[in-house]
Amino acid sequence: MWVYSPPDIPWLVELHVDRDLFVLDKPSGLLSVPGRDPARHDSAFTRVQARFELARMVHRLDLDTSGVLVVALRRKAERHLRAQFQDRTVVKGYVARVAGHVQADHDEVDLPLSLEPGRPRSRVDLVAGKAARTLYHVLSRDPDGTTRLALEPLTGRSHQLRVHLLAIGHPILGDRFYAPEAVVLAAPRLCLHAASLSLDHPYSGVRMTFEARVPF
After folding, report:
1. Tens digits of per-residue pLDDT, 76-118?
2. Please, which residues bridge with residue 211 across strands?
3. Cβ partners under 8 Å of residue 7, min gap 6
């Protein structure tokens, strides 16, 4: 049975902080928000909230995904940021390492997704699924038989990138939810990282881009 064990890391890696925003580089293995079980209380959000009492979460990353995570520090900032995510004006850039050599240098995966009943997993569902679109671009095809991809999700479905890459025959290395065992064991962690995020500052309106170094 898998037991949540948050990584032994410094408090948080700060990328940017002002009166409206706290932007961090979330490590793989740390929850974005606390779970219901008291043993799963430690999370990026609870750590930010311990320092900024009015902090509000506006989006999330999967437990095993690392990278840029934005937290609002005021209610007005929260409303503004949530609207940007809902209106899909936020641009997210990910990097992944996947099994096999992806043939097309760049392409779009357009496959609707739905949640599996009773399980925290998603699946391609051509009948009842919600629209899900992902752009990808090959960064390198490596000698070990893997490919490094730049990804841009145009929608924000649960596990979208993981399921889309699995669907085209290139599961992400270390993906314990979806990949075959050999691909899971090919990396010590999920090789998916939120490398950049661009949004409008909720107070000034200035377009800002935050970046976090790819750790794999």
Report:
1. 999 999 999 999 999 999 999 999 999 999 999 999 999 998 7
2. 196
3. 27, 28, 29, 30
Secondary structure tally for the chain: helices H, strands E: 4, 12
Query: Hey, what long-range contacts does 137-144 have (CB within 8 A, 24 or more apart)?
Result: 137/105, 137/106, 138/102, 138/104, 138/105, 138/106, 139/95, 141/101, 141/102
pTM of this prediction? 0.93
Domains and CATH numbers, the chain: 93-192 (3.30.2350.10)
- Please pick, among 25, 62, 64, 175, the residue that the annotation labels catalytic: 62
Nearest Cα to 154, choosing from 215, 92, 79, 81? 92
Active site residue 62: yes
